[in-house]
């Protein structure tokens, strides 16, 4: 090791002009490379993983495990590079987490999983939804939490604006993987059945559900005829052109749905005791309402919506955050009455503060080194050498990280700040020892070459 250090210092002194040229090139290209390096709070520590979720309406956890989870697990067994397979079956939902060996191509793994799912999906129960592969997320996926509140709009109206306007715009920001909406209340026609009125007219819940599903032709209720595709379309040829037939839904409001006549399994109208057809309004209240809530959001001590912005594994936290904030600024003029708070959770603030601390530490260290060397050694050239050597050391370290594809994260910034202290200490001690040896040799009238004196003085402190 001593020979290696001696060779490095000796070669640097011999080819000092080449070293200066290389240092200038490193500062130039290193500065440009650092500005484009991805920045995050923590490094990407999790192995490649693929999560699959399958909805199974009205099934218990045991039924989900037996009918949905186990068949999918059997189909996915033996995937190339698969390390661990974890599954969780809860009422109405199956979740399978596949963790692959480090170094596995994530996109290739997702493709292989999709091919296996295409084979097993037709064998699942008809009331189970199609298996869905969740978007790829980074280890620390949540990059922002955005609060929405309003004193003028209802939560239902604000939810529809968020779902159809705000969320699609944020999803278009490069690096954004998903935008989850907490507390959303999607506006829909809801049939609120009254058991007493149901019993009074002799109508079953199944008849009401079948009638509502057929009237809306939405296919949400899979057991209803509306769940099957109906080839109802066509065109009319005229002497000049072909006119396409456009079907207008007859039921678009709760009032219209309430007037629909309830039918039995054979499609015949259900009659009451007086022989009159029973309508949905006779056994239920049909209103605008929202889906059943599994959670809610509180924004600034009041009701509101919370948007959870998640990023892709290879995305830059600072760029994603600034892209989302720019998108919100563009949307704000078209969202009167909605207050947007993007500061509830913003990891980019911590990164920006860390970078500012690093820059401040670097500038202070350069200033202190210059003052120490200038006032104690009375050598401006020595101070200049140290001032150049300190940032050059950090740029060299950053270039090594960039070549390895690493991100600038909390651990890297902490290492840089600690390294500044080491580099400053080394620069002061090395320069002071070299200056002292040169002065001693000059006073002694030594004929020893300056290069040899510098080499020996530098090696004295290298151990």
Description of the molecule:
This protein has 463 residues and is α+β, with helices and mostly antiparallel strands. Helix content is 49%, strand content 17%. It is built from 14 helices and 14 strands. It has helices at 2-14, 16-36, 61-76, 106-120, 155-171, 195-200, 205-216, 254-258, 280-283, 317-331, 347-377, 380-403, 410-443, 450-462; strands at residues 49-55, 82-90, 93-100, 132-133, 142-149, 176-182, 188-193, 235-237, 242-244, 284-289, 298-299, 302-303, 305-311, 339-345. It has a 4-stranded antiparallel sheet with strand order 2-3-1-4, covered by helices on one side. Strand 11 (298-299) and strand 12 form a beta hairpin. Helix 11 (347-377) packs parallel to helix 13. The longest helix is centred in the last third of the chain and has 34 residues, at 410-443. The protein is elongated, with a radius of gyration of 35 Å. Residues 219-224 have low confidence and may be disordered.
Keywords, please?
463 residues; alpha+beta; four-stranded antiparallel β-sheet
Write the SSE topology.
Layout: H1 2-14, H2 16-36, E1 49-55, H3 61-76, E2 82-90, E3 93-100, H4 106-120, E4 132-133, E5 142-149, H5 155-171, E6 176-182, E7 188-193, H6 195-200, H7 205-216, E8 235-237, E9 242-244, H8 254-258, H9 280-283, E10 284-289, E11 298-299, E12 302-303, E13 305-311, H10 317-331, E14 339-345, H11 347-377, H12 380-403, H13 410-443, H14 450-462
Antiparallel strand pairs: 1-3, 1-4, 2-3, 5-13, 5-14, 6-13, 7-10, 8-9, 11-12
Helix pairs in contact: 1-14, 2-12, 3-4, 11-12, 11-13, 12-13, 13-14
């Amino acid at each position: 090791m001593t020979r290696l250090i001696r060779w490095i210092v000796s070669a640097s002194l011999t080819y000092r002009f080449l070293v200066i040229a290389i240092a200038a090139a490193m500062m130039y290209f290193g500065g440009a490379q650092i500005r484009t390096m991805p920045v995050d709070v923590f490094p990407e520590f999790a192995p490649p993983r693929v999560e699959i979720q399958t909805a199974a309406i009205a099934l218990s956890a045991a039924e989900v495990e037996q009918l949905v989870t186990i068949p999918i697990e059997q189909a996915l067994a033996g995937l190339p590079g698969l390390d661990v397979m974890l599954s969780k079956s809860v009422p109405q939902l199956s979740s399978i987490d596949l963790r692959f060996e480090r170094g596995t191509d994530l996109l290739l793994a997702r493709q292989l999983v999709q091919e296996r799912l295409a084979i097993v999906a037709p064998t699942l129960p008809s009331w189970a939804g199609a298996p869905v592969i969740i978007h790829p997320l980074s280890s620390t996926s949540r990059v922002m939490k955005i609060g929405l509140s309003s004193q003028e709009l209802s939560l239902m109206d604000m939810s529809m604006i968020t779902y159809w306007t705000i969320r699609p715009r944020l999803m278009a920001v490069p690096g954004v993987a998903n935008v989850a909406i907490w507390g959303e209340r999607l506006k829909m026609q809801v049939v609120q059945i009254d058991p007493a009125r149901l019993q009074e007219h002799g109508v079953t819940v199944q008849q009401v559900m079948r009638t509502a599903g057929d009237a809306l032709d939405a296919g949400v209720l899979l057991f209803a005829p509306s769940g099957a595709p109906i080839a109802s379309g066509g065109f009319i040829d005229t002497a000049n052109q072909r006119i396409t037939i456009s079907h207008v839904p007859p039921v678009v409001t709760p009032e219209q749905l309430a007037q629909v006549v309830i039918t039995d399994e054979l499609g015949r109208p259900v009659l009451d005791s007086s022989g009159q057809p029973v309508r949905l309004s006779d056994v239920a209240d049909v209103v605008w309402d929202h889906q059943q809530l599994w959670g809610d959001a509180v924004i600034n001590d009041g009701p509101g919506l919370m948007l959870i912005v998640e990023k892709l594994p290879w995305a830059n936290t600072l760029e994603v955050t600034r892209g989302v904030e720019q998108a919100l600024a563009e949307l704000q003029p078209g969202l009167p009455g909605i207050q947007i708070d993007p500061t509830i959770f913003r990891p980019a603030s911590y990164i920006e503060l860390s970078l500012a601390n690093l820059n401040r530490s670097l500038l202070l260290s350069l200033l202190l080194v210059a003052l120490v060397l200038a006032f104690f050694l009375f050598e401006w050239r020595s101070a200049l050498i140290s001032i150049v050597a300190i940032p050059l050391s950090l740029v060299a370290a950053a270039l090594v990280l960039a070549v390895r594809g690493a991100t600038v994260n909390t651990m890297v910034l902490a290492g840089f700040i600690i390294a500044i202290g080491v580099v400053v200490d080394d620069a002061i001690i090395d320069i002071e020892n070299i200056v002292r040896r040169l002065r001693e040799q000059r006073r002694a009238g030594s004929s020893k070459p300056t290069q040899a004196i510098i080499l020996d003085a530098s090696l004295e402190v290298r151990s």
